[in-house]
Amino acid sequence: MKITFVYPDILEIVPDYKGAFYMGIAILSAVLKREGHETSLIHITDPEYDLPRFEADLSVHQPNLIAFSSTTNGWERVRHLAGFLASRGSTIPTIYGGIHPTLAPQECIAAPGIDMIAIGESEQPLANLCRALQQGQEFDKIPNLWVKKGSTVIRNPLSPLLQNLDDLPFADRALFDYPNLHFELQGAATIMASRGCPFACTYCCNTALRRLYNDLGSYVRFRSVRNVIDEIKQVRRDYAFVRRVHFDDDILFLRREWAEEFADLYVREVRLPFCCNVHPSLCTAQNVETLARAGCDELRIGIESGNEMIRRTVLGRSLDEGKILEAFALARSKGMRTLSFNMVGIPDETPSCILESVKLNARAGVDEIQLTAFHPYPGSALYEVCLEKGMISKRRVTSYYVDSILDLPDLSREQLRMFQRYFCTFSRVYRKVFRLPTPVRKAAEWLLDGILTSRMAPSLLRGIRPIAHRVGVVLRVLMRRNRSKLKCVNQERPGLKEP
Ligand code: B12
Ligand code: SF4
Fold first, then answer.
1. What is the DSSP string of 131-175?
2. Same domain flag for 96 and 189
3. What range defines the domain where residue 359 resides?
4. How many Å apart are CA 149 and CA 432, to the nearest integer?
5. At CA 231, angle to CA 285 and CA 24, rounded to 5?
6. What are 117's strand-pairing partners?
7. Fewest 10 Å CB contacts: which of 113, 129, 322, 372?
8. What is the atom index within ligand 1 of the atom nearest the CA of 498?
9. Residues 6-26: tens digit of each pLDDT
10. Which residue's CA is minimally distant from atom 1 of ligand 1?
11. How confident is the model over 435-472, as pLDDT tens digits?
C-alpha cells in the first residue's frame, strides 16, 4: 500500500517558513513502514499552495490512501483539499486524523471528500486500516475510526491507550525534508519522551483528551530512558547538523526517578545542550538541579497570566506568584536561559490584568517572552465558556500571533493590539522602573499603570511612536549598546515555539 500524508503547516507570519517536524505523522509513518507499506508526505508550508499543485503532487505519489493530518488552524485547508478530491470524483480513500478531528469529529466527518476520521492516538488503527484495504477486507469496524458509509457514519469505540511507548518504532524523520525544517535549521533535533500531561488547564487539549480516554489506561506515559537515549543517538548518527536537543514534551521532568535516570544516561551518552518545557510547580530546586546536571540550558515555563484570579479560575492553573518567581530564579541560578509563555485576550481579562502579566515577566527576569492572543480550541473547557458567553466572532484569524477571534467586554481590540505589540517593551520599561529607589519607583509605577490601562493608551502610543522610535535609535547609537537582553516572540517579532 502507498500512503501519502497531507499536512498543512502554514505560519504566514514567519518569513520563508520551512515547516516544523511533527512527531505524530512521523511515528505513524514508521509504524506503516514496519508493516511493509510505502509512505510519502505532502508538507504544505507555502501559503500560496493551490489545487493544481495538489493534483500534481498526488500524481507523483500515486497513493492508495490519502491521510490528512492537522491542528484546528489547518482544518480549513484540509476541508478545501478534500472537497476538491470529492468534486473531481476521486476514488482514492481518504482519512483525516490529528487533534482537530479528535476533538471536533462531527464537523470533520461531515465534510465532502473525507471518508474516515481517526480519533486520538492512531498507530494501530491506521495499520489495521491499511492491512484491511490491502487485503480487500471490511474496514468499518476498526476501533478509533469513524467511517462514512452512504449517508450514515459508523462510529467505532476507542481502543485502550498504548501503555508501553517503547513498543513504537523511532519516528520516521526521513519522511520530512528533515535537515531543512524550522528548528533543525537551527541545529536542533526534536524528541518526545512522553505522552500526556496530568494538569487540567482549561484552554489546553490535554484536559479534553484525558476526558475522552477516561478509563482507557493511564493517560500520562513515559518511554524508558534507554529508549529515548537510543533514539537521540540514532538521530545524531543520521544527521550531522544536530547540535542540541529540543524536547517537545508537555512536561519532561514529571517523575523523579525517570528524571534522575535520564540525567545520568544523558550525560554519559549524549552530552548535548537541550531545552524543555516545565510547569512552575515542578520547578523545584531538586528538579532544576537535575536538569542542569543533565545539560539543560533553556527552560520554558508557562506564566500565561500575571493575574491570580485569571490563572486560577479562568485558566485552571492554581499557582501563586511566589512559585512562578521562584521557578525563574532557580533556573537563572543554574545559568539557564528562560522563556515564558504568555497569553493576552483571555475571557474576563482587563487591561489591568494584562499589565500584571507584563510586570510579572519583568520581576521574573525572563530572557525571552512568547506572547500569543488566547485562542479557544474546540474541545477545551474554555472554548465552551467562550461559546456560551457569545464571545466568538466571525473574524478569520490565521495565527494567534496576529489577532484574537474573541470580542471581549472589558478589553477593546485597540487595547489588545497595543498589548500584543508592546508587551515586551512594557516589560523592559517596568524592569527598569523596578530598579529605581522606592519612592521614585512607586510614583513611576503609578503613572505608568494609569497611562497604560486607560482607554486612550493605544492612540497615545500611536501618536508618540515615531518620536519614541527616533529617540530610541539616537539613544542606542549614543550608548552603543542594545536596549536590553530581553528577546520577544510576538506579533512584532514572530518566531515559532510550541505553545
Ligand atoms: C509539538 C507540538 C507542535 C509542533 C508540531 C505541530 C503539530 N502538528 O502538533 C509545532 C511547534 C510545529 C506546533 C505548532 C503549533 N501548535 Co502545537 N503542539 C505540539 C504538542 C505539544 C505535541 C504534538 C505532538 O507531537 N504529539 C505527539 C503525537 C505522537 O501525538 P498526536 O499529535 O496526538 O498524534 C497522534 C494522533 O493525533 C493521530 N494522528 C495525527 N495525525 C494523524 C493523521 C492520520 C491520517 C491519522 C490516522 C492519525 C493521526 O495519531 C498520532 C499518533 O498517535 C501539542 C500538545 C499535545 N499534547 O498534543 C500542541 C498542539 C497540537 N499545538 C497547538 C497549537 C495551537 C499550535 C499552533 C497553532 C500554535 C501557533 N504557533 O500558532 C501551531 C500550529 C502548527 C500546525 N502545523 O498546525 C494545539 C492545537 C489545538 C488545536 N485544536 O488545534 C495543541 C493541541 C496544544 C494545545 N494548546 O492544546 N505544535
Ligand atoms: S497547558 Fe501545559 S500544563 Fe496545562 S494541561 Fe496543557 S500541557 Fe499540561
1. HHHHTT---TT-TTEEEEETTEEEEPPPPPPPS-GGGSPPP-GGG
2. no
3. 183-412
4. 64
5. 90
6. 96, 146
7. 322
8. 11
9. 999 998 878 889 999 999 999
10. 248
11. 999 999 999 999 999 999 999 998 888 888 777 777 66
Return the ligand 2 atom nearest residue 316 CA.
4
Candidate of 3, 71, 341, 375 to mutate for ligand 1, largest count of ligand atoms within 8 Å of Cβ: 71
Please give the pLDDT value at position 167. Answer: 98
pLDDT of residue 494 exceeding 70, the answer is no
What's 110's domain CATH number? 3.40.50.280
CB atoms within 10 A of CB 494: 17
pLDDT at 472: 66
Give percent above pLDDT 70 in the chain.
94
Cell numbers for 186, please give them.
537551527
Within a domain: residue 432?
no
- Residue 476 confidence (pLDDT) above 90: no
Please state the pTM of the whole predicted model: 0.93
Q: pLDDT tens across 330-342, in order?
A: 999 999 999 999 9
Burial class (CB in 10 A: 0-12, 13-18, 19+), 9: buried
Residue 24 beta carbon below 6 angstroms from any ligand 1 atom: yes
pLDDT of residue 475: 63
Taking CA atoms, 21 is separated from 134, 182, 206, 273, 277, in Å, by 28, 8, 20, 19, 17
**Helix-strand-coil percent breakdown of the chain, rounded to 5?**
45, 15, 40
Residue nearest to atom 13 of ligand 1 (CA): 498
User: Both 144 and 246 in a single domain?
Assistant: no
Neighbours of 478 (CB within 10 A): 8
Neighbours of 475 (CB within 10 A): 11
CA distance 301 to 313: 20
8 A C-beta contact, residue 497 and residue 489 = yes
Contact (CB, 8 A) for 113 and 140: no
Q: How many domains does the chain have?
A: 2
